[in-house]
Amino acid sequence: MAAMMGGTMRSPLAATVFAAELSHDFGSLPALLIACASSYCVTVLLMRRSILTEKLARRGQHVACEYTVDPFDRVRVGDVAANEVPMVPHDMAVAYLFERINGHDPILSRRQGTLIVDEAGDLCGILTRGDLLRAMRRDPAGTMSVGAVGRREMVVTHPDETLRTALEKMLAHDVGRLPVVERGVQRRVVGYLGRTDVLAARGRVREEEQVRQRGPNSALFENDKAKTPFQRCSN
């Protein structure tokens, strides 16, 4: 019974302790542990998933790992969004914005999207590089204002939302960037979230999980490795 439970549920230690507590025969712990570990190894080789996630897989939901948390659920938008927001006033001429981007403006040239704000500094639109190029084709002189060629309908995110929620918004609306606005004040811009910021956040999470930092005693171990066996014995 313990081997069956430990193998199908992928929990050999839980099955071992459960069987020992149920039978009150703690002398059988070594045999239970061997049986559950063997069953676990067999089911890992023969079954792609445990019975806990098999129904989800049959419904078409991909389960990559059963006991991990999505790293984007642990990160908030406010922690990764850029504070330097590419913003321009709504009455700026398209030609002037084009010149600033071509002139490698430190803020505007780094982003594919530019936020448009009104006289009060509130968000009123967004302009992408594609929109800018189409506007220049229609009007080579670039006399139109960015407010006239920008998009009024926008998808926004909030600083307290998880990065996963923001990513779902990007995928659902097929956009690569989101203005970050205050919750309750939908037009007050507090940040900018783009694909680069999302990838940078994923890189930081990966570094926290995989990269090991040098501890205070690492130098002692390195010095010990450099010694010969005779020196180690003498010490």
List keywords for this structure.
alpha+beta, disordered C terminus, 235 residues, two-stranded antiparallel sheet, 47% helix, 12 helices
Description:
This protein is α+β, with helices and mostly antiparallel strands and about 240 residues long. It has twelve helices and five strands. A hairpin with a 2-residue loop joins strand 4 and strand 5 (about 185-195). It has helices at about 1-10, 10-25, 30-45, 55-60, 75-80, 95-100, 130-140, 145-150, 165-175, 195-210, 220-225, 230-235; strands at about 85-90, 115, 125-130, 175-180, 185-195. The longest helix is centred in the N-terminal third of the chain and has 18 residues, at about 30-45. Mean pLDDT is about 80; it is low at about 230-235. The strands form two sheets. The chain has a three-stranded mixed sheet with strand order 1-2-3. A two-stranded antiparallel ribbon has the order 4-5.
What is the H-and-E element order? HHHHHEHEEHHHEEHHH
Oligomer: single chain
Q: What is the strand content?
A: 5-15%
Shape: rod-shaped
Question: What does the main sheet amount to?
Answer: 3 strands, mixed
Q: How many DSSP H or I helices?
A: 12
Distance between the termini: 53 Å
Mean pLDDT: 82
Backbone CA Rg: 29 Å
Helix content: 40-55%
Strand order of the largest sheet: 1-2-3
Low-confidence stretches: 228-235
Find the count of extended strands (DSSP E, 2+ residues): 5
- The secondary-structure class comes to alpha+beta
